[in-house]
Amino acid sequence: VAGILIGDGAVLTLDGWIEPGYVFIAGETIREIHSGTPSPNLAQQADTLISARHAAVLPGLTNAHTHLSQTLMRGLAAGKPLLRWLKELIWPLQSAMTADDVRLAALLGLAENLRCGATQVVEHHKITATAAHTDAVCEAAQIAGARLTLARAWADRGANAEPPQSILADLERLFEQWQQPAAGLPQIGIANGPLVPWRCSAETLRDTRALARRWGAATHIHVSETREEVQLSIDETGLPPIRWLDSIGVLGPDVQIVHAVWPGEGEIDLLAERAAPVVHCPVSNAVLASGIAPVGAMRRQGIDLRLGTDGPASNDNQDLFGTLKSALGLARLAAADPTALSPSEALAMALAGRTLSPGAPADVIVVDLNTSRAAPVHDLDSALALCASGSDVTTAIVGGRLVVRDGRLQTLDEDALLDECRAAANSLRRRAGLA
Ligand SMILES: [Zn+2]
Predict the structure, then answer these.
(1) At what angle do helices 414-431 and 99-115 cross, to 10 degrees?
(2) Residue 149: which region, alpha, beta or left (left: phi > 0; alpha: psi -120 to 50)?
(3) How far is the CA of 225 from the centre of ligand 1 (A)?
(4) Residue 58 in contact with residue 7, Cβ under 8 Å?
(5) Contacts 24+ apart (CB under 8 A), 425-428
(6) How many angstroms is it from 195 CA to the middle of ligand 1?
(7) pLDDT for 182
């Protein structure tokens, strides 16, 4: 069994930081975490030694919501509000994408996530024209070495609606083909990904959620991102979106609510009662001027909060450290309260409940704090939440596999990938009529 020893660093454990401390990885799992220096015997068992001097060692981050296909669409928000941005830019580009475009976009997006310390990525995948378009993302995750949950997006109402039977059949196919056995943490998982409540019928929401639950999988949906969408729901159903989802029985611990920027009266209580996790995407919400989610209030209600970059067409990068700092600043600004979100609470959102402990899957990152950005370090949580950037991640290990070392991706030729993506993006713009 291959052994990796990360020593001489500040290590984030269940009980807080230990410094200096070390982490020993054997095969796919963490075998030992301890303060002090490792014994010579342990060091001898390691075939890879990594020094974490003046660095932080923590679980790999989870980017809990993105759209990897948009990696070829950076810098195109162009000051448009959400619905116009979708209609004039995103939808024409999405429909022009080939399976090979999706593969390249996913590879580059996953490369960036890993380089920035996110070892686990939830992809809300919209480009479902053919099975090959969707499979390309799962294949990219296997090549890049990231853990991926692919939430298969769908809409059965409005423009480009799919018939419910084909949505269910494709979901079933994806579960059968890609969902891996529940032992440990699978590298690839599938989830049900309805786009937004107002484009999904109650019946298909219920049926797809039931199918996902049979596979032990989640449902992942954009909810109450803009005021306009909330009004749309009230006009049509008499209820705001979160209440409407609850009224049709589709709200629970397995239903991940993405955004929740505009929860109405009592809706935060409802999310807490149903134990539905909320994925906060503060940079995307700011870039699209959608609003600031009431994170402080949601945290006080004990809601399971996670952090997402959202797609590169509305962020426009995948650096979860930048998103982390924005989450902290915006939560405090919105509440006019400097205690609304602390550095360690913001960091916990990016960790999505992951911890370093013996027996846990070896998803570990090392963040260099010996930088002009972060040194001298007085408080490790603050250094990570307020000073660090994704480019300070020197090491990323996923399931015991060293995917980033000395800040370089080990699984892909990044320079060649950038050239391919540039060419694909230019051709895509022309085909979508945006050149
Ligand atoms: Zn999104």
Answers:
(1) 140
(2) beta
(3) 9
(4) no
(5) 425/72, 425/73, 428/72, 428/93, 428/96, 428/97, 428/101
(6) 8
(7) 61
Q: How far is the CA of 82 from the centre of ligand 1 (A)?
A: 11
Token reading at 363: 């998803």
What is the chain's Cα-based Rg?
21
Between the CA of 174 and the centroid of ligand 1 the distance, in Å, is 21
**CA 350 to CA 168: how far, in whole Å?**
31
What predicted TM-score, i.e. pTM, was given to this entire model?
0.97
Q: What angle do CA 371, 144, 30 make, to 5 degrees?
A: 70
In Å, how far are 174, 190, 255, 267, 391 from 153, measured between CA atoms?
A: 12, 11, 14, 24, 31
pLDDT, residue 286, reads 94
Query: Splitting the chain (435 residues) into consecutive groups of 10 residues, what average pLDDT does each group show?
Result: 94 95 97 96 95 98 97 83 84 94 98 98 96 98 97 94 98 94 80 97 98 97 97 97 98 98 97 98 94 96 97 92 98 95 97 93 97 97 98 97 97 97 95 85
- For residue 418, CA distances in Å to 111, 260, 432 come to 10, 34, 21
Q: Report the b/e string of 272-287 with b at 16+ CB within 10 A.
A: bebebbbbbbbbbbbb
pLDDT at residue number 79: 77
Residue appearing with tokens 């002009």? 372
Cα–Cα distances (Å) from 305 to 92, 159, 364, in that order, read 32, 32, 21
Half-sphere exposure of 177 toward its Cβ, with a 13 Å CA cutoff? Answer: 14
363 touches 382 (CB < 8 A): no
Distance between CA atoms of 393 and 276, rounded to whole angstroms?
31
Ligand 1 center from residue 143 Cα (angstroms)? 24
